[in-house]
Description:
mainly beta
Amino acid sequence: MMINERVQIHKGDNSMGGVFIYEEVITGTIVRVNKKSIRVHMTHAKCTTNGKLTREYDMNKEATFDFWKTIENRQSGKNAGKTVSLYKNKDYGIIEIAH
């Protein structure tokens, strides 16, 4: 993980079946790296409901994401099968960074 690295922040609510009914994806850039946290400047957000884009907007905010845990990602996607570190912020969501 490096300064100026682009990241995606995920936040959402899911139904009983585990499918996201509401999801917000925020795009940002890491501006500071500490031992147990990272600071991210957030610039763009997309909101979806039931898989359809419902809102898209620009933003100009910074927030600190605290280290949560390291896991082996068993889901599909670009980080499937990799060891990833998870950082979270109660207001904005979770960042997944591959090792």
